[in-house]
Design a protein that fits this description.
The complex is a heterodimer of chains A (about 150) and B (about 190).
Chain A lengths: L3 H20 L13 H11 L18 H15 L4 H12 L14 H36 L4
Helix pairs in contact in A: 2-3
Chain B lengths: L1 H5 L14 H18 L19 E2 L9 E2 H4 L5 E6 L4 H15 L3 E7 L3 H11 L5 E5 L3 H5 L7 E5 L5 E6 L7 H12 L1
Classes of the chains: A mainly alpha (about 150), B alpha/beta (about 190).
Chain lengths: ~150, ~190
Amino acid sequence: MRRVLPVLSAVAMVAAPALAQQEQSTAPFAYRQLEDPAKERAAMDLMETLRCLQCQGQSIADSDAPIAGSMRSLVRERIKAGESPEEIRAWLIERYGDYVSYAPQLTEVTWPLFAVPLVFLLIAVLLLRRRFTLRREVEERGAGDEGEEA
Amino acid sequence: MSANRKAPEGRARAPRWAIWLPLAFFVGFVALVMTGLLKPADRTVRSALVGKPMPSFDLPPALPGRPGLSSSELANGKVHLVNIFASWCIPCRVEAPQLAQLQRAGVEIEGISVRDSRENLEGFLATNGDPFDSIGADDDGQVQLALGSSGVPETYIVDGKGVIRYQHVGEIRPEQLDVILARIQEAGQ
């Protein structure tokens, strides 16, 4: 073991820079924040709602995949240049489809997602109204027929 | 009015078959879960740009003395195969013989090398062959994103007007060559 350790550490010393070179992305803002904190926050908020195309369960803010680095750099560069987050989202959706965005978009396919809760709410209101009016009728009639009961 | 009068005694009873409804819902739910488990949905992210013009880009040469790649060169009246690849990508090695075969068939193949270094690229081409007319260096991966590509390798068939006609995601396997050649012919008409 005593002999293995120096060898291992030597290997680690040689291997570490090599690995670092591989992981290093040439995209300028893959791992660098924007200087303006407000813009960095806007970029971060957007990055958290964009899907990494390689590890599809992760946002590009969470992912260490190289393509996620390129996407982060794209987001930061465009935010820096003054583009709005929704414009950047639209640019990516134009290329990758809605799947790239975690924030659901209102399209002809997704509108039921937004409409169904409203429909349920409407049905609930109608049902409750019927129930309340029924009860009132019953109470009124009950009061007329048999006097006060409740 | 008669319905209203009945109401206080107890509401109209549900039909007898209704007792099976919860079970039916449960069975339906299990069937849904099982289909999702046994036949998972296709998670391939395809470019939404198929059928649309190639986005404009201008990439510097990846290797000295060789041409780079710009989108205007693709709209020169000929069909081009644009192959997105990298030396660090293992499946790219798998498709190298197929690319060589396509080149022998007279297909013009242009390369976009993604997030790569010159030395690694030279090594990759030396081992796996070099079927490319030109190779553009997409060092920060921005052109890859502009093309709607979600990984390497990917291959686009671009017609003479610079319109993307087909996208192949993943390596081109030998049994897929026929499809690729047919699509190239289609794009040339």
